[in-house]
Amino acid sequence: MSSYLLGERLNLLGKLGCALSVLGSTVLVIHSPEEQEVTTLEDMTSKLKDPGFIVYISILFVCCLVLIFFLSPRFGQTNILIYLAVCSLLGAFSVSSVKGLGIAVKGLLTGLPVYQHPLPWILIPILIISVVTQVNYLNKSLDTFNTSLVFPIYYVLFTTVVITTSLILFKEWVSMSPFDGVGAVCGFLIIILGVFMLHAFNNLDISLKSLQQQFKTFAPVTEESKEDTIAETTKAKTKKEDKITLIDNMETENSGGIPKVFVIYT
């Protein structure tokens, strides 16, 4: 869309990488396990208090701090993955908060006193801070880099982080079959290949028209083309010899000091 609406350019390998990224994300979503049903704030609280999820979310939080305060000021203007990594990692906080607040809103509509539970009041500021920070760094990325590169990479990274967070939070990997596990791994590898092609070859001037020209250049030479080439070479050589003979005749006739007029018959 940005190539047509904003006039930004994406080469052939970039378009192929974009298609592979979307395909890999689709395969990953298809083979991801079904989400466990969590209906009460107590169940959501117990999920959030799980030691495995606490370790996972703590690692993401530390990575976000490193990206924001150390890597972003130094490499944010040159590396597209810095800003987008911040947005994607914060997606784990925003999606988890939305899940908990969704349960709270559902309970509030059914008449439950959810406002007395501390979890919604903890998740609201987390959601606001994470969403505001995501929008801020996404705007920085859009202002700095090509839109055709930003959205596919952001989509892939965000989808990967969200699915990983869901697997750890709800322990969905326990119910995965071997077929779904292999499909999810294949989808993730396709995503990596697509992002690599999109990011590594974005500066190359490769298009379908240029490839067709290259194929024409290396096309096999037929007998007819050989004969045409020989005829054109012979004709050009004959014209060159006629010009040299004409110049020699002019020098010979003018050597006597008396200019002469001559006529060329064709």
UniProtKB/TrEMBL annotation:
<feature type="transmembrane region" description="Helical">
    <location>
        <begin position="80"/>
        <end position="98"/>
    </location>
</feature>
<protein>
    <recommendedName>
        <fullName>Magnesium transporter NIPA4</fullName>
    </recommendedName>
</protein>
<dbReference type="Pfam" id="PF05653">
    <property type="entry name" value="Mg_trans_NIPA"/>
</dbReference>
<feature type="transmembrane region" description="Helical">
    <location>
        <begin position="118"/>
        <end position="137"/>
    </location>
</feature>
<feature type="transmembrane region" description="Helical">
    <location>
        <begin position="149"/>
        <end position="170"/>
    </location>
</feature>
<feature type="transmembrane region" description="Helical">
    <location>
        <begin position="53"/>
        <end position="71"/>
    </location>
</feature>
<dbReference type="GO" id="GO:0016020">
    <property type="term" value="C:membrane"/>
</dbReference>
<feature type="transmembrane region" description="Helical">
    <location>
        <begin position="182"/>
        <end position="201"/>
    </location>
</feature>
<keyword id="KW-0812">Transmembrane</keyword>
<dbReference type="InterPro" id="IPR008521">
    <property type="entry name" value="Mg_trans_NIPA"/>
</dbReference>
<keyword id="KW-1133">Transmembrane helix</keyword>
<comment type="similarity">
    <text>Belongs to the NIPA family.</text>
</comment>
<feature type="transmembrane region" description="Helical">
    <location>
        <begin position="12"/>
        <end position="33"/>
    </location>
</feature>
<keyword id="KW-0472">Membrane</keyword>
<dbReference type="GO" id="GO:0015095">
    <property type="term" value="F:magnesium ion transmembrane transporter activity"/>
</dbReference>
